[in-house]
Design brief:
Porin, two-stranded antiparallel ribbon, disordered N terminus, globular, about 5% helix, Porin_dom_sf, about 400 residues, Phosphate-selective porin O and P, 16-stranded antiparallel beta barrel, mainly beta, about 55% strand
């Protein structure tokens, strides 16, 4: 009985007693192989994990918490504190070349619980592998590589949350593979999955709003219209130059037939995204993404429901000090800048030919401190300028954000 009690105590408190270093009595930190060329598509497994003894399951996760103070046109609601997400992930090697990975996210203090990823990988060949389950549609780079501790900014990019639905995942199956030679690596992903519904034009935003489909939990049980959403991505990377990714996601969003009765024509939607990341001038990191979205909006809808959207972001991160700081031996102090833009209605009014102006600009300077590569403390100043459909004087929002994000 005493031995069982001792085993239980060490299992629970082992990480605290041993500081969750690379190895402890019961726990082993699963190290990532930094010698291999990693792409955005590898982000799902390129995370720190803890493994207990010889058990086949590895555990990990990350936490984000922050505070914010904003005012819009001089009006402020004061200081607020947020815990936007706590994410848990588990990985298991079932047998050689058979892997399972899941990512479960608790949002807004646990008010929402979402399975963002839960897939089985069958590895036949580096160039030919099967993945099935709840997959993260690889459109752009942020949707796959979204973990908070990897970013110097508190808020997620506007275009990656309001045009591409942030952490957009569906039940589906597909193929992925990679080929590398010396300093080069080329990779692809191709999936069929459930997808969007008509909430993208039938929502409380009174505009074309792709994230509205995330509220449809039935997409994890059945397709809204029986037409699979298709997602394709190709990426190429040179170790010393850059990674470039091109992706496409397309399908049908409306219910065009019900019990054999034709209700409407098939109305397509398509996303095209380009992403790039590179390190220049030795240690200046650039990371950017641009997305174009197209949707067939019925003629019965007024022009505030746009048929085209576009937007993107560019992050510039510059380390200004590395080494021992505040007692941490391998810490980094960064300054960073994010430039953002999103246009929710690209085009002109039919009557007068004037440009529709439903768009937002944002500028976010930041400073971040990393006591380790897995933890970031960050302070942001955020300035946004939003212009409505009719080009009325733009609303201006400015404020400060401070918080942290850490793997555990």
């Amino acid at each position: 009985m005493k031995k069982l009690l001792l085993l239980f105590m060490l299992t629970i408190f082992g990480p605290a007693l041993y500081g969750q270093t690379d190895t402890s009595f019961f726990f082993t930190r699963v190290k990532q192989d930094s010698s291999k060329l990693k792409l955005n598509m590898d982000a799902v497994y390129n995370r720190p994990f803890l493994q207990m003894g010889k058990l086949p399951v590895s555990l990990g996760g990350y936490l984000e918490a922050n505070s914010s103070y904003f005012s819009t046109d001089g009006i402020s609601e004061g200081l607020s504190f947020q815990l936007p997400r706590l994410t848990m992930f588990m990985s298991a090697s079932i047998r050689q070349r058979i892997k399972f990975m899941t990512e479960i996210e608790f949002e807004e203090g646990g008010r929402e619980i979402n399975i963002e990823f839960a897939a089985l990988d069958l590895e036949f060949n580096p160039l030919f592998n099967l993945r099935g389950g709840v997959i993260m549609n690889p459109i752009g780079s942020f949707n796959q590589n979204h973990d908070g501790p990897k970013w110097e900014f508190v808020s997620r990019p506007i275009s990656s949350t309001t045009i591409i639905p942030s952490t957009w995942s569906n039940v589906g199956f597909g193929l992925f593979g990679k080929y590398s030679k010396k300093n080069w690596v080329w990779a692809y992903e191709a999936y069929l999955s459930n997808g969007f519904d008509d909430k993208i034009i039938n929502n409380n935003q009174n505009r074309t709003w792709f994230p509205a489909s995330k509220a449809n939990r039935e997409r994890f049980e059945e397709s809204f219209n029986g037409v699979p959403l298709k997602t394709l991505k190709m990426a190429i990377k040179h170790r010393k130059i850059a990674e470039i990714g091109v992706s496409w996601m397309g399908g049908v969003y409306n219910k065009f037939r019900d019990d054999g009765l034709v209700l409407d024509k098939k109305r397509p939607l398509n996303f095209i995204a380009l992403d790039i990341n590179s390190t220049i001038l030795k240690d200046t990191y650039l990371n950017g993404e641009w997305v174009w979205a197209y949707v067939d909006v019925p003629d019965t809808y007024i022009q505030q429901f746009g048929s085209r959207q576009q937007g993107g972001f560019l992050d510039i991160v510059q380390p200004i000090k590395k080494g021992k700081m505040l007692g941490w031996s391998e810490s980094v102090l960064n300054v960073a800048l994010r430039l953002e833009y999103a246009d929710y209605n690209v085009g002109n009014f039919q009557e007068l030919g004037l440009r529709i102006a439903d768009h937002v600009y944002a500028l976010v300077p930041a400073i971040s401190f990393r006591p380790s590569a897995q933890t970031v403390v960050r302070a942001n100043y955020r300035y946004e300028r939003r212009t409505d459909l009719l080009r009325n004087p733009a609303s201006q929002t400015a404020g400060f954000q401070f918080g942290f994000s850490t793997y555990f």
